[in-house]
Amino acid sequence: MKPAPFEYYAPTTVDEAVRRLAEHGWSAKVLAGGQSLIPMMNFRLAQPGVMVDLNNVSELFYIKPGTDGGVRIGAMTRQRTVEKDPLVAERAPMVHAAMPKIAYPQIRNRGTFGGSIAHADPSGELPAVAVALDGRFKLRSKRGERWVGAGDFFLGLFTTALDVDELLVEVALPPVPPRSGWSFMEVARRHHDFALVGVCALVTLNSGGACDRAKLVYFSVGEGPVVAHQAAGLLEGQAPTAELIRAAAETASKDDVDPQSDINASADYRRHLARVLGERALTEAFGRARGGE
Amino acid sequence: MNDRHTITVTVNGTPYERSVEPRLLLSDFLREDLGLTGTHTGCEHGVCGACTVLLDGVSVRSCLMFAVQADGHEVNTVESLGTPDNLHPIQEAFRDAHGLQCGYCTPGFLMTLVPFLAENPDPSEAEIREGISGNLCRCTGYQHIVDAVKLAAERTRGS
Predict the structure, then answer these.
(1) Contact in structure between B141 and B121 (CB atoms under 8 Å)
(2) Using a CB-CB distance cutoff of 8 angstroms, which residues of chain A are in contact with residue B3?
(3) CA-to-CA separations, A264 to A196, A203, A247, in angstroms, rounded
(4) For site-directed labelling of B23, which of A158, A197, A250, B94 has its Cα 20 to 30 A away?
């Protein structure tokens, strides 16, 4: 058999799941969709001693409207369900645009929204989208419940703010603010492969048409979602002209991202893509912000 | 560790009760425990799509699931489609349009395409290519597979 042996638990409630996590500590691993974890287990890169399978925890499968006008997504909601959900399309259009880019249809049938976030793969789409949208994550443990902002959740390569006994149970995405526009773009060698570089942009204009807030978040160019602070600093308070957008994308590619070379692309090529995609995404986002008033 | 679980899985309409180790992959359960070798294993890490089966009617990678997780669920494999004398329309279209050469990847393509065509009986070429993007074929260059899907769609709509 490919994976190493493990003890298996299939709780049916969150309470039971977090009790198992508290009981088994670091030897336990949460099994959500398994579309990243099981490949790692098949290679024996991961050999958890205990698996806590969430697939029977029905209370984690939902998409609900948020009272703030946003949307709340239960951690075990299948990616395919999110992709096709009309409420997500209406209230979180950036998520709707990103979903079809995640792996292949069969993977999305099984993969989960929360699993992709908790896995924190630096080339994952959803961690970057959640950061760009200022999403908030509800974490549960036997000790209680807490909320963590997406910006504070991703700590590094496959590393998050989740404590050993904590479970990600919900992702809350706020509504897109007024006079705002968004964009999601990525470049992959083949459709659905891991992105060489991807970017999410969310921009807000003030009543005078200048940039009030710009958030440009890259993925596949660092150890997690990379927020382009320097680029945002150039844009905020200024009229978003084509020249300024070009300069901001240039800055992002030089000063904000720190891509590595690997078998798929050199660091230089990734910087090039960061500049080109950054410019296109900002242009699209500002265009939508102007049109969406 | 010899943790075993008794599971009941309905495969191609037949319920099977078996005792399994939790680490047994669904793909190996189908092939080794049930002898249903129509489901092929290729990469065994979710890239190639050869092991695609239906879980409660939805296409999934059987190498990225444990058999124990299929407890109480319904699985359909390529054996549930047609027989040599009475091929499923998608199988017939693959034969007629030369949608296969070595045939190793074919069961995965077929089990991807059954729900795909049920959901979208008149797909565009772009939609077909999107639909089969999770399945690798190293022989055909995909062109004849796309032709086979178009043919299957046409015939199914026409009947």
Answers:
(1) no
(2) 5-8
(3) 7, 31, 27
(4) A158
Question: Does B130 sit within 8 Å of A38, measured CB to CB?
Answer: no
Q: Is A3's CB within 8 Å of B59's CB?
A: no
- Separation between Cα atoms, residue A108 and residue A78, nearest integer Å: 7
DSSP assignment of A203-245, as one string? EEE-TTSSEEEEEEEEESSSSS-EE-HHHHHHHTTS---HHHH
pLDDT in tens, B16-64: 999 999 999 999 999 999 999 999 999 999 999 999 999 999 999 999 9
Q: Which residues of B touch A6 (CB under 8 A)?
A: 1, 3, 22-23
Note the Cα A44 to chain centre separation in Å: 26
pTM of full prediction above 0.90: yes
Query: Which residue from A minimizes the CA distance to B69?
Result: A55
Q: In angstroms, rounded to a whole number, what is the distance separating the alpha carbons of residues B115 and B100? A: 20
Q: What is the ipTM of this complex?
A: 0.94
Tokens at residue A107, please? 């993977």
Length of chain B: 159
B91-94 long-range contacts, CB within 8 A, separation 24+: B92/B152, B92/B155, B93/B148, B93/B149, B93/B151, B93/B152, B93/B155, B94/B145, B94/B148, B94/B152
